[in-house]
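Weekly modeling sync, notes
Attendees: S.R. (lead), two postdocs, one rotation student

Agenda item 3: backlog of single-chain predictions. S.R. asked that every request posted to the team notebook include the full sequence so nobody has to chase files. The rotation student volunteered to paste the first one in as an example of the format we agreed on. Action items at the bottom.

Example entry:
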Amino acid sequence: MSHLNASTSERSVATPDVRQQSLRDNRPEVAVRSAPVIDKRKALNTSNSNINNNSNHNKYISAKRVRIECEDIETDVKMSENTIAVNNQNNRFSLSSNGVNKNTQLANNAKPGAAKKLVIKNFEKPKLPENYSIQTWDRLKEAVVAIQMSEPVSTSLEELYQAVGNLCFHKMAPDLYKQLESLVEIHVKNCVLQFLNADMDHLSYLKLMNNCWQSHCNQMIMIRSIFLYLDRTYVLQTAQILSIWDMGLEMFRKNITNDSIVQTRTVDGLLKLIESERNGEGVDRGLLKGLLRMLSDLSIYRNAFEVRFLQSTEQLYAAEGQRLMQSMEVPDYLAHVDKRVNEEWERLLHYLDHSTRKPLIQTVEKQLISEHLPNILQKGLEQLLDTHRTADLSLMYNLMSRVKEGLGELCSHFNQYIKKKGKVVVTCPEKDKTMVQELLDFKDQMDLVATQCFSRNEKFTNSLKEAFEQFINQRANKPAEMIAKFVDSKLRAGNKEATEEELEKLLDKIMVLFRFIHGKDVFEAFYKKDLAKRLLVGKSASVDAEKSMLSKLKQECGAAFTSKLEGMFKDMELSKELMLNFKQYLNNVKPNGAVEMNVNILTMGYWPTYQPMEVHMPSEMVEYQEIFKRFYLSKHSGRKLQWQPNLGHCVLKACFTGGNKELQVSLFQALVLVLFNDNNEFSLEDIKQSTAIEDSELRRTLQSLACGKARVLTKIPKGRDILDDDRFAYNCDFKNKLFRIKINQIQLKETQEEQATTQERVFQDRQYQIDAAIVRIMKTRKTLTHNILLSELYDQLKFPVKPADLKKRIESLIERDYLERDKENTNLYHYVA
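Predicted structure, as returned to the notebook:
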């Protein structure tokens, strides 16, 4: 409601137009006239103030033109049809529902300053001029046609917008919408003619279609801006009709794209354009993007384009996959597939609709990868693994991970490859010497592939371990034996191939192979035999390395596995302490002795079993042996000493023409050389009788002294082999630049008999373990069936064993009255207390 202000002079006040209609100019001005009465003016100011205080209420009331009268004051204001009460102390202004209040006359004898009553009357609703709707539509039609023809619009857009608002305000919106819809449809129908009779190539046709679509979109944007009031009032309130923009899309879809000829030519052109791009030709991606966006906006993208596009894609890549698999190597084919997949991703990024992503990529992956999965793996995986092509293997893994069964098939072939290659290394006797090193190298290669190429996939890592465990146990006991010997070669003195850090890493790798072997007791037997040699002969490269290996074995297999090995180290330490006391004892017993003697005391249960060997020792040595025996038994009564001359070694002082030397030899070599103090020449038979050394051992000993690098004896006649008639003489002309010369005993290659002996020893130990396990189980369970007993034995035993061997041990225990069979059920065993 406007704020009325009265003064002594006459003035005009403009009334605000809440509807902002174009009829504003027809409204009369508001005139305010004031009488020269101070009290009346005061009353008017008071009432105006009260009316202004109620403005927050009045602004939500629909306005109509009313007339206010107060004696000689008249004014036009916008008021509500409803009753408005304005209170000011005891004064009241009231507006009835019809806009006229009850007349109440002012008292003639009213005091100065008393309030006057206003009389408010309704104005009649303004009417539109005649033919206003027709004239307005003509102007609107003219503007729409101009927009469709890309011509300038003569009438301002603001006036057109106001005209649409006036028509909607006066309930003409339905007719206005129908007229606009008809006008748009006529224009679109005229546009379709250029596509029906067009004789042009597919590229020009697509450009014409794109131009038509872009023009239509721009036209509808302009038209909607003019008819925005219609779109936001009538259209928004009427659910049965489309918005102006959607109505334009529907007209375009109905009259142009749904035409079979137009639609077919458009889609054919799009497919040809994409095919050209796939063939390496340059295309207008903006054109493709615009037209595909058009199909998407018209909601015909899937039915009209996507189905045919995926069919053509499938046909293209099906033929391409068949052709290239026959003509390309697998690495080149994989690179081509990766390139194709990336190209399709680019198309999705630039112009294809996002809904096409999944079916398109699946189609490409199926035709180029899934359909050729067996061929790719059979033809290429082994080649890539053999040549260590990590980049191509990584690409293969990435591509296989895209398809459903890809990684499963890749893992299976990877497993088969490892078993195939590993079996060749393990089962071939010619590779025994290099078996462990080849297995270590092979394991490193496969670990590298699993880590770098296969993304540390747990499935591949487990498959690698399973494959190694499977093939390394195909040849029973031999891998365990060779691993033990390989460790011996690395821990033996003189191994200068690696530093301590490198040796530690190598031992860690060896332990990985050790975990795979089932016959760990075989490894223990050979490792213990070699460790004994290293400790007794002093050939261990490093005590720290030995103890590190022992710690790793203990961590892997437990304290029981390494208890004997630890006992061997303990014996060596105790022997060192014992020899300090013995030397003091020897100084008291024989203060001027010419021989320095060192003895190692070995506990028989810890060390390998050695065959006792009796030889003829020089009297000086026998004397010292007896002195040590008295010393030891004086400290440890009840024990028995058994000498092992085959494990001994000596340092001899030798006199030659060229000068004196010190010879570091074995005890057997020393026994032979000492004979030449009494005579310069001996036959083979003479030496054998004098020393009592076993024949084969004696021949190897003489061969090392007379046929090796340091020939302190001369063999007559000359030759490499020791024959029965050979004679040996002292070589006084022996020369060597070194003062101390080590003459190595010729190592006899381990014969089949010795290997069989070691394995037999392992087998015997296994029998004892089987017997103990059976008794332990039966003592706990008292009664068991045969099958359950075998099952529990397999759980407890840590080495591979056949059911027939277990049955033999059960029979043996029955014979020894540890078990008995049930009288009624022979498959049931009872423990005999």
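Discussion: group reviewed the output briefly. Residues 1-110 have pLDDT under 50 and may be disordered.
Action items: rotation student to repeat for the remaining queue; S.R. to check formatting next week.
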